[in-house]
Design a protein that fits this description.
Layout (H helix, E strand, L loop, with lengths): L1 H16 L3 H7 L8 E3 L2 E6 L3 E9 L4 E4 L3 E3 L1 H9 L3 H9 L11 H50 L10 H7 L12 E12 L5 E19 L7 E12 L12 E2 L6 E2 L2 E5 L6 E4 L7 E5 L2 H10 L6 E5 L3 H5 L12 E10 L5 E7 L18 E6 L5 H15 L5 E6 L16 E4 L1
Parallel strand pairs: 13-14, 13-17, 17-18
Antiparallel strand pairs: 1-2, 2-3, 3-4, 4-5, 6-7, 7-8, 8-11, 9-10, 12-14, 15-16, 18-19
Helix pairs in contact: 1-4, 2-3, 3-4
The structure holds zinc ion.
The site of zinc ion has 7 residues, from loops.
């Protein structure tokens, strides 16, 4: 009988081992929504040990890892989360008792399982409580950050206030500012630029004039003619130094390593919003979206400042195009870069992937209302071309509608719309 029982027991353990770590996590009563997913990885606090991002599940390899503690398969995961021993963990995963041994002590086993269930219930409660606290903290942080953005916007002077204004900056960049009426952009006379020092403290490394724009979202509003209104969600700042040709922005370096820092910053939130630059969205039938304000304004001149067009900036490529469909094996989720390779830790060169052409419609990106029948997405010629092209095509796919023309336009290689001379013809590319 021993052989048969061993065989049964092996099969029982194998069944438990075959459960995916994602299923095991949920079988312990935890929700995958408590973790952030990026590709096959789900990362977040460990229900057992806490922390912020010490815990991860990998759906592809079906393994878990808890930093500093342990890792392993579904059985190891259940042991880690519940404190159950090996066979009890298998029972939980299989949802049935282990193959019976002669005269096994059922009462003792039942007591153990009850104790484990009790522990799990406590952990679930704690995880839920911590989730609520985290959310409250994040909301508080967001509210404070937005208050700060609003204060900076209020403090700011007019677009065309003095010789170091946003208008003077854009004009210095050789952009045509004659059409800008100052409705969308302002000048902050002395905006602090903060960076982290070696000890993680925020220190002001620069104070100077800055151009401010607002990230705005479209929200439904039954009271307005279009059915929508703008809601500001974040602030975009560009520091100005009119003595620093050709970009006319100050040189800022990290106090930690002396590396250059970008002289543009976004505060608050940008996801799903745009920075209006020129025109009125409610009366426009055409929309032009680029990454930066300068790019859009440079293009607007090529475009002849069309009266039917709303020109706006997305802030960055991610917000311009939205995310690609997730799951690395999903078609369209990613594409292999034709030339760039990366070196793995073992020295082997591995392919480099960039987000693919298939949009994740659930991700945030610039809003394009239904009444827009022509959409133009702008690519900078000085960005990495493979990634930029993929992103713009993904953005085109995302916003394609029947009766709407959608296309991506790329600035000549090496330049952006703001830098190229008016004589150069843009490369046109249909989506
Ligand atoms: Zn842990």
């Amino acid at each position: 009988m021993t052989g048969a029982r061993t065989f049964e027991m092996d099969a029982f353990v194998e069944d438990a081992r075959a459960v995916s770590v994602l299923q095991a996590f949920e079988r312990c009563g935890f929700s995958l929504r408590s973790l952030r997913s990026s590709g096959p990885e789900h990362v977040g606090p460990c229900p057992s040990c806490g922390g912020k991002d010490r815990f991860s599940l990998n759906s592809q390899k079906s393994v878990f890892n808890c930093r500093g503690a342990e890792g392993g398969d579904a059985i190891g995961l259940v042991k880690h989360l519940t404190g159950l021993d090996f066979l009890d963990a298998c029972e939980l995963l299989n949802g049935r008792d282990r193959p019976s041994r002669d005269g096994g002590d059922d009462a003792e086993r039942a007591a153990r399982r009850e104790a484990a269930e009790h522990r799990l219930a406590e952990q679930r409660e704690r995880a839920a409580r911590e989730e609520v606290e985290r959310e409250a903290q994040q909301n508080q942080y967001r509210a404070r950050e937005w208050d700060r953005c609003r204060a900076l916007w209020r403090e700011a002077a007019a677009f065309d206030c003095n010789s170091a204004s946003a208008k003077a900056y854009l004009a210095a960049r050789r952009l045509d500012v004659s059409r800008l009426d100052g409705a969308y952009l302002r000048t902050h006379p002395r905006l602090g630029f903060f960076a982290e020092d070696g000890k993680g403290a925020k220190v002001a490394i620069h104070h100077g004039p800055a151009q401010l724009g607002l990230f705005c979202r479209l929200v439904p509003d039954a009271g307005s003619a279009s059915g929508f209104r703008w809601m500001s969600i974040g602030l975009h700042a560009t520091w100005i130094d009119l003595d620093a040709a050709p970009k006319f922005r100050p040189t800022l370096v990290s106090p930690v390593d002396g590396e250059p820092l970008p002289s543009k910053k976004m505060r608050g939130s940008k996801a799903g919003g745009v920075i209006p630059v020129l025109g009125l969205l409610s009366s426009a039938t055409r929309m032009v979206v680029g990454e930066g304000i300068e790019t859009v304004l440079g293009f607007a001149r090529f475009d002849g400042f069309r009266a039917d067009t709303f020109y706006c900036a997305a802030g960055d490529l991610g917000n311009l195009a939205g995310k690609a469909r997730s799951g690395r094996d999903e078609p369209g989720s990613r594409i292999r870069h034709p030339t760039i390779k990366r070196r793995a830790t073992n020295g082997v060169m591995k392919p480099h992937f960039v987000p693919g052409l298939e949009p994740d419609m659930g991700s945030d990106a610039v809003p394009v209302p239904a009444w827009i029948d022509e959409l133009v997405l702008l690519g900078d010629g000085d960005s990495e071309p493979v990634m930029t092209r993929a992103a713009l095509k993904r953005g085109c796919a995302r916003h394609a509608r029947e009766g709407r023309t959608v296309r991506a336009l790329f600035a000549p290689v090496g330049g952006d719309w703001a830098d190229v001379a008016a004589a150069l013809e843009p490369e046109m590319e249909a989506a």
